[in-house]
């Protein structure tokens, strides 16, 4: 069908939707049965059946159905075809909504529709967001149930507005209650342990406020910087990096290199409290707009953002990203045409736990129930569900408790798994150097037209590859991806400071350093010194090199070798 035909069909069924209030006409019942059946089929069809065999629907038919459902649901709500409360109780509306959410989730995992297909292009974002801010029920329904009709950038802005509004309310309450900010003391050799001990029991309301960190170095001496917000950024990044390290066995890597809770994480004492703690820490990073360089498995993200609550959710869809071998085995079983008795399967699975084989039943009495041709579809889905959820349900629940203590679940419903990953880790596109330069601050005598600064931007634009530009950003900020809304939203702002050859400590903008920086007065060419960074402040420290080639070579060496953090 062409778009015009689909829109005519939408108009027809919207009229039927209003006129047939009991939904008892033959046409209404046929409509409901069709989408109920299509939804059920979509939950059991794998990618091979859907996109290669194209049975029972061709891909072009799926696209037409998606277009119809998206427009039907949006117009039902936004154009006030019926009252929003009546809509939610309407069977016709709910079966179409169920199919829409299911086909949208399939497209998120394996795109098959054109770019911007899901957006309502005639809807003005400013008008819609004003309605959201006013608490309009139809606008709130759309942003929470079908947010994909609104541009992603606008939803990110709305998320940041929600956070800013809550921060202001909590700050006012703390001022009224005369609450002080939280101050913690962290030994660098025990970052995770000290952080867990001092923060894990604090409620989300407290953690959403200012947390100040006092570091104790490896020699047992206090480090400067307790009153700088950037020190907490470094602490947060170090905690997240350490806990998500697969070597710790709290998290494991999928075949695609994405992280999910380890099924054997229970070997850690207080492992569920650890998961709740890291949930709070990751939530705090998102709350503060701090991008972290970790990739979470999409099935794990879907639990966080509430995308697994639907009765139509199917674990088999994402199993291949977690366990490719099991996915192949289950696909083989699903399409096996021989005698199922030959496979000798029951509704149970064995697991090796620390050298002991433990049998788990997929359903009550499962070890005595054989897998047959009639029930093999159920077996495939139960096995996938066990592997992706049941096996780690306690870890997921604990992590969600911590994360949702900081980030409201309602806010998270605005995003798909991929969109949440970008919210967490930044954009996947190349770095916009013009935007970065526009929002860079200079210290120590550097300025936008200083020769070293001019060289730096030329090197980044002309000499560095896309990958090297990402390494450069990671070198300075600890994250290789730019913020979703641009560098205007990077906190703290991206900064570059001129440092002296003989500086052991950066003392800031002294009068002498500023004058020397502007006049380019140096006793010697600092060819032996590498660029360094203070990632907690998003600060690049550059010697005043005398040659562009020296800057290029030293910077390239530094970003590849990671000369690392240097707290000032």
TrEMBL record:
Enumerate the Gene Ontology biological process terms.
Answer: protein polyubiquitination; ubiquitin-dependent protein catabolic process
**GO MF entries:** ligase activity; ubiquitin protein ligase activity
Q: Which residues form the active site?
A: 536 (glycyl thioester intermediate)
Q: What is its EC number?
A: 2.3.2.26
Task: Please report the stretch or stretches of sequence annotated as the HECT domain.
Answer: 207-568
The highest taxon in the source lineage is: Eukaryota
**Localization, UniProt:** Postsynaptic density
Q: Which GO terms describe its cellular component?
A: postsynaptic density
Pfam families noted in UniProt:
HECT (PF00632)
Question: Which reactions are catalysed by this chain?
Answer: S-ubiquitinyl-[E2 ubiquitin-conjugating enzyme]-L-cysteine + [acceptor protein]-L-lysine = [E2 ubiquitin-conjugating enzyme]-L-cysteine + N(6)-ubiquitinyl-[acceptor protein]-L-lysine
Q: In which pathway does it act?
A: Protein modification; protein ubiquitination
Keywords (alphabetical) are: Ligase, Synapse, Transferase, Ubl conjugation pathway
Name the PANTHER family for this protein: UBIQUITIN-PROTEIN LIGASE E3B, UBIQUITIN-PROTEIN LIGASE E3C
This protein is called Ubiquitin-protein ligase E3B
Natural source organism: Trichinella pseudospiralis (Parasitic roundworm)
Q: What is the lineage of its organism?
A: Eukaryota, Metazoa, Ecdysozoa, Nematoda, Enoplea
Gene name of the encoded protein: ube3b
